[in-house]
Design goal:
mainly beta; 46% strand; three-stranded antiparallel sheet; single chain; four-stranded antiparallel sheet; 140 residues
Length: 140
């Protein structure tokens, strides 16, 4: 069993890394995600309609799964006396905190019909359970 140094700031630091801070380059597009636990795995689905999978990057660092990419879409309609042009573009990034000890080798990603599915096997090593420690009182 490997011993790790505990810091009271570890959980706070991990939580802040998974928080998305606004930037000046705020995304126009923010994909919806679902995260569920199923059969010893975490399944993350992201709706990415109209986005080329080549424009999407999935990465993992410090127990945080990062899905980022860029959407660039332009539509133009010209029919009879009707003219319309729409543009949608922007960068996006979603960060999902995963359980400590998750291995990047246990992950797979699949893109089908505008939906990205990332499957992550949960770590087999269980974390220590919380328990109450009895206090011994010395009487003098």
């Amino acid at each position: 069993m490997e011993l790790k140094v505990w810091s009271p700031f570890f959980d706070l630091d991990r939580a802040l890394r998974s928080f998305e801070f606004p930037t000046f380059e705020s995304p126009v597009f923010r994909p919806s995600i679902d995260v569920m636990k199923k059969d010893g795995e975490i399944v993350v689905t992201a709706e990415l309609p109209g986005i080329d999978p080549e424009q999407v990057e999935v990465s993992f660092e410090d127990d945080v799964l990062v899905i980022k990419g860029e959407k660039s879409e332009e539509k133009e309609v010209t029919e009879d006396d009707r003219y319309m042009r729409e543009r949608t573009f922007g960068r996006f990034q979603r960060r999902i905190a995963l359980p400590a000890g998750t291995s990047p080798d246990s992950m797979s990603a699949h893109y089908d019909k505008g939906v990205l599915t990332v499957t992550v096997k949960l770590p087999t090593e269980s974390l220590p359970q919380a328990r109450t420690i009895p206090i011994e009182v010395t009487t003098s």
